[in-house]
Specification:
By secondary structure, the chain is mostly helical. The chain has helices spanning 36-54, 57-60, 69-94, 96-116, 120-133, 136-147, 153-178, 181-184, 192-196, 200-220, 230-238, 247-251, 263-291, 303-332, 334-343, 345-362, 366-396, 403-435, 442-458.
Length: 469
């Protein structure tokens, strides 16, 4: 309205629907230098997550519970979905650092339990402990939002997928190299203990890494949550001056959870849920596709080839994201980059059947490897969509003390998607092949359709994370 033009800064009304980064911050400014030490520690904490979770992949199927491997991981995400919102909301009240420390401690404890487990129940309980205590992902995203501003947010959030990719590369290497140490290193690890618990060493290494991270956070990481002025509010009430509580006390307080159920918050979260679903289905299908015989719809790769190729993705992803993510966002804007990267899911899923058709006609030749390389590069761009959408989610938070709850709600939806995504995609894969739907390629047609639908939700995002919808 025209009358609003003359309002001073003190007259601007801020409530739970006001975005954390508003239009007043749009002016193009020189990028603020990133706090390197604090972000480095945060990335170290992020690195622990995939190392711990993915180090079990090389040997989980050897523990005579291969049929239940998907169940074990789905239960991790299911228990995480039940608790992560509460952990994130708790971090809005007591601080990010205590919740992060508790999550890292739970992670180290669960890895030790995993290495010492000899039954299916023990494996399941250890992973459920990790999921239930682990509010780290949502809290780390909140801390990244608080350590950055509108001028360097793209640089900060671009580092998170890089740390995850590095951990996703190191985790399987640790698990594959250190399982059954008494066989691989008999002179270093003799004795009955290592025969009785052949998977304890990789679990212990992952736990030791988590303990190192715990101590680093405890000693060097600074609390990023602004101090809440609740004492002023309490004192004014005791003095009979409750009606004169400073306005910034209310504005800087955590908002009720129902205040997050508004379009400005739900639209970025819905986009996050879509890409999380598509990503986890892609990652669940890849090893299945690679290992399935060519005549049944896959490529017939051996485990070594699969591990090397999937490890190569982590390296390429880390290098390219470091080089091009922030410049792309600066040049084209977060929304444009997000929509392009999300669109990459369409050719990624389409390349699965195309690659198999080529392999059936000509065998594993240069054209198959070319198509796999194209899929790998598209996967790098796809992964950039997460950095973009995290900026939108951060900007959508009503205020700084609700950033944890906003990220927790987003992570809860992603955890739900990741709990059902692997079982859904692998079941569709098997059903398509068994019943020859669309020559066994029906699963990819479904996923391409979902990818197209996801683009319709992306249109509703604001022009940039610095603007209100």
């Amino acid at each position: 309205m025209s009358s609003s033009a003359g309002l001073s800064d003190s007259d601007i009304v801020v409530n739970e629907r006001t975005a954390l980064l508003d239009a007043g911050q749009q002016t193009h400014k020189k990028a603020t230098p990133l706090p390197k030490l604090q972000i480095g520690i945060l990335l170290l904490a992020l690195l622990v997550e995939p190392i711990a979770s993915l180090s079990i992949y090389p040997y989980i199927n050897q523990r005579k519970v291969g049929y239940y491997a998907g169940l074990i991981e789905s239960l991790f995400f299911a228990t995480q979905a039940l608790t992560i919102l509460q952990w994130s909301r708790t971090s809005d009240r007591i601080g990010r650092k205590p919740v992060l420390l508790l999550g890292i401690f739970g992670l180290s404890l669960s890895m030790l339990c995993f290495g010492l487990s000899r039954t299916l129940l023990g494996l399941i309980l250890s992973r459920c402990i990790t999921g239930a205590l682990n509010g780290n992902i949502g809290v780390m995203k909140s801390m990244m939002g608080e350590l950055t501003d509108s001028t360097n947010m793209a640089q900060g959030f671009s580092l998170m997928p890089i740390a995850w990719s590095l951990g996703a590369t190191l985790g399987p290497m640790i698990g594959g190299a250190l399982e059954h140490p008494q066989q691989h290193f008999p002179n270093i690890f003799p004795g009955a203990f290592w025969s009785r618990f052949p998977y304890f060493l990789p679990s212990a290494v992952a736990a030791a890494f988590a303990v190192t991270c715990f101590l680093t956070i405890l000693l060097f990481l600074k609390e990023t949550l602004p101090r809440q002025q609740t004492q002023e509010k309490s004192m004014s009430a005791l003095d009979g001056e409750a009606l004169t509580v400073p306005e910034n006390v209310i504005e800087d307080s955590p908002v009720p959870i129902r205040s997050l159920f508004v379009p400005s918050v739900l639209i970025p979260i819905a986009n996050y849920a879509y890409i999380a679903t598509l990503e986890i289905t892609m990652y669940a299908l890849q090893p299945l596709f690679y290992s399935t015989p060519i005549e049944l719809g896959g490529l017939g790769f051996d485990p070594v080839t699969i591990g090397l190729w999937m490890g190569a993705f982590g390296i390429v992803n880390g290098v390219l994201q470091t080089m091009i993510f922030a410049p792309l966002v600066d040049k084209f804007g977060s929304r444009t980059v997000f929509r392009f990267c999300e669109m990459c899911f369409i050719p990624i899923f389409a390349l699965f059947p195309i690659t198999n058709i080529v392999a059936q006609q000509y065998g594993i030749n240069w054209l198959v490897w070319f198509l796999l390389t194209c899929s790998l590069l598209l996967g790098v761009f796809m992964d950039m969509s997460f950095g973009c959408i995290l900026m939108f989610i951060t900007a959508a938070a009503p205020n700084k003390r609700s950033l944890g709850a906003t990220n927790g709600l987003a992570q809860m939806t992603a955890s739900i998607a990741r709990a059902i995504g692997p079982a859904m995609s692998t079941s569709m894969f098997a059903y398509s092949i068994q019943h020859k739907f669309m020559n066994g390629y029906a699963v990819y047609a479904v996923l391409v359709t979902i990818s197209v639908l996801a683009m319709g939700i992306a249109v509703k995002l604001p022009g940039s994370p610095e603007k209100k919808k």
